[in-house]
């Protein structure tokens, strides 16, 4: 699924090409419209655009100026220019400057427009197949990332940050290109799974490949440094680039962070899809665009990992943006001693449970519960109720709580004095956790089915609204590409076909009732114009709306 943006100051041309390409279903396009270059820039700053069809001459900002800005925002975006008879040399110059792949006369045959789009898509796909290029660049990145940088950033994520002056010195000494006195935006990535044919020795290179892809999409708007934890999690700390694309929109300060925050989701979405296509890696992402001071970075990293787990440890290619979801956890943490070493372990324990990581969970669980010097009775009570709360809380979030309460041993989860010694307590909670992990694995496919059911329900109740793949994917915290493939795998048909079917079914019902005019029915089922609705209806039923009504 590719995103195409049509740009022209003549509305009739934009709408005509839109309707033409909407009918070319084999292209699998998600299409957007802009009626001047400034509207186009608003779309480009919000979402990734793969292909643009643009008038080369427009008032205010012409197609060439737009092309230059596009290349700074989305370097891989391809452009097809619409020209007049006397503008060929102008268009050829644009093609030589990079990005543009074709030019068309405005009055050319519609079939030529479709062919030009097919050609542009083929060129995009050829570039995306170049896995060797990505891995070679990743290998260079791996060699260039000094061990000292990794050490400084890892300590920053896992411990209490040093003073500002000390942090500034560490960044300078390790050549970390970030400003210690400025806040940072955060992105956490998780390798969802490793295929059986991926050797252990190849995994670091693929992870660096993922990091390189992210770097390509972020440049030149931002500077970033990635860190890898546990050979599975990646953290990007990101700041606006002093000389990047942000300067076109603002001069300095808070506005540059606002601009970067606005773009992070679309950047991450593009990187996620590239990892899937180029590296065959399923990667989930959680975004906390903040920005946050360095004193908060380590804790935010832990929260984002937990958020990935809370949205479904068994799910793949998640794309979650923190819009206040972590605030309750943040407030609770303020009330809990940050120096308590047990706190960090418990957060990690819950994360392993959420992600279905049985071995890591059990290892850390026994480390918590079987400490050589458990200490006083008070410390044992703290461990007991902390683990109890972790398990009960997880059961509530995952819908297992009712079944858990039916277990005759459930009261023992809440009463410290109901166990025959500490060893029995440890064994009891381990058995409960094992049962939960097993049930979680059984529910993984159920979760995917629930996503499809939620989408179907929303579509049926909002046929007159925006039902673009981007909109629907944001609802379920997945990338558009993943949602499209998941829906087809579970239902046997495309999401586009389902939406069209529901709209046509509703339209036929309204036509039979006879109370509404055709243009009113078109609006009621999500079509902006009666002619577009009429063409779609005839293509679907073989009859025009009026012919269907008159039968």
From TrEMBL:
Residues 3-121 form the Response regulatory domain. The modification 4-aspartylphosphate is found at residue 55. Coiled coil: none annotated. GO terms for molecular function: DNA-binding transcription factor activity; sequence-specific DNA binding. Keywords: DNA-binding, Phosphoprotein, Transcription, Transcription regulation. It holds the Pfam family Response_reg. InterPro entries: CheY-like_superfamily (IPR011006), Homeodomain-like_sf (IPR009057), HTH_AraC (IPR018060), HTH_AraC-typ_CS (IPR018062), Sig_transdc_resp-reg_receiver (IPR001789), Tscrpt_reg_AraC-type_HTH (IPR020449). PROSITE patterns: HTH_ARAC_FAMILY_1, HTH_ARAC_FAMILY_2, RESPONSE_REGULATORY. GO terms for biological process: phosphorelay signal transduction system. Residues 453-551 form the HTH araC/xylS-type domain. PANTHER family: ARAC-FAMILY TRANSCRIPTIONAL REGULATOR, HTH-TYPE TRANSCRIPTIONAL ACTIVATOR RHAS. This is Response regulator. It comes from Cohnella nanjingensis.
């Amino acid at each position: 699924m590719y995103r195409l943006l049509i740009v022209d100051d003549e509305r009739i041309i934009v709408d005509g090409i839109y309707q033409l390409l909407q009918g070319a279903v084999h292209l699998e396009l998600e299409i957007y419209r802009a009626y001047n270059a400034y509207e186009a820039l608003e779309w480009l700053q919000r979402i990734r655009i793969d292909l643009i069809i643009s008038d080369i001459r427009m008032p205010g900002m012409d197609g060439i100026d737009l092309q230059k800005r596009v290349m700074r925002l989305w370097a891989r975006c391809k452009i097809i220019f619409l020209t007049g008879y006397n503008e060929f040399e102008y268009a050829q110059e644009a093609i030589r400057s990079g990005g543009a792949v074709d030019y068309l006369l405005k009055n050319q045959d519609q079939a030529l427009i479709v062919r030009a789009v097919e050609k542009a898509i083929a060129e995009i796909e050829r570039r995306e197949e170049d896995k060797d290029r990505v891995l070679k660049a990743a290998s260079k990145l791996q060699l260039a990332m000094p061990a000292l940088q990794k050490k400084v950033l890892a300590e920053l994520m896992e411990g209490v940050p040093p003073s500002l002056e000390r942090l500034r010195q560490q960044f300078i000494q390790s050549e970390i290109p970030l400003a210690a006195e400025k806040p940072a935006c955060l992105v956490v990535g998780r390798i969802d799974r490793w295929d059986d044919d991926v050797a252990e020795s190849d995994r670091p290179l693929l992870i660096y490949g993922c990091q390189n892809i992210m770097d390509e999409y972020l440049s030149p708007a931002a500077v970033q440094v990635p860190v890898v934890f546990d050979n599975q999690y990646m953290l990007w700390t990101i700041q606006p680039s002093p000389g990047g694309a942000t300067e076109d929109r603002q001069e300095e300060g808070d506005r540059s962070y606002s601009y970067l925050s606005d773009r992070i989701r679309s950047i991450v979405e593009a990187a996620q899809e590239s990892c899937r296509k180029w590296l065959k890696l399923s990667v989930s992402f959680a975004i906390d665009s903040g920005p946050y001071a360095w004193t908060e970075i380590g804790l935010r990293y832990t929260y984002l990992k937990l958020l990935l787990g809370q949205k479904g440890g068994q799910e793949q290619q998640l794309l979650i943006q923190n819009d206040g979801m972590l605030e309750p956890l943040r407030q609770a943490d303020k009330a809990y001693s940050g120096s308590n070493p047990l706190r960090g372990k418990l957060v990690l324990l819950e994360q392993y449970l959420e992600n279905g990581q049985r071995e890591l969970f059990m290892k850390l669980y026994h480390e918590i519960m079987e400490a050589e010097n458990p200490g006083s009775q008070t410390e044992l009570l703290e461990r007991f109720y902390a683990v109890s709360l972790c398990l009960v809380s997880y059961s509530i979030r995952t819908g297992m709580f009712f079944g858990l309460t039916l277990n005759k041993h459930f009261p023992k989860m809440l009463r410290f004095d109901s166990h025959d010694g500490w060893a029995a307590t440890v064994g009891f909670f381990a058995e409960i956790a094992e049962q939960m992990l097993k049930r979680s694995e059984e529910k993984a496919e159920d979760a995917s089915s629930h996503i499809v059911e939620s989408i179907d329900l929303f579509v049926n109740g909002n046929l007159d609204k925006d039902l673009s793949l981007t909109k629907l994917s944001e609802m379920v915290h997945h990338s558009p590409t993943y949602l499209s493939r998941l829906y087809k795998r579970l239902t046997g048909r495309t999401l586009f076909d389902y939406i069209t079917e529901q709209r046509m079914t509703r339209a036929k019902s309204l036509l039979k009732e006879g109370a509404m005019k055709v243009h009113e029915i078109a609006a009621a089922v999500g079509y902006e114009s009666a002619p577009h609705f009429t063409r779609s209806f005839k293509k679907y039923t073989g009859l025009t709306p009026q012919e269907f009504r008159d039968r």
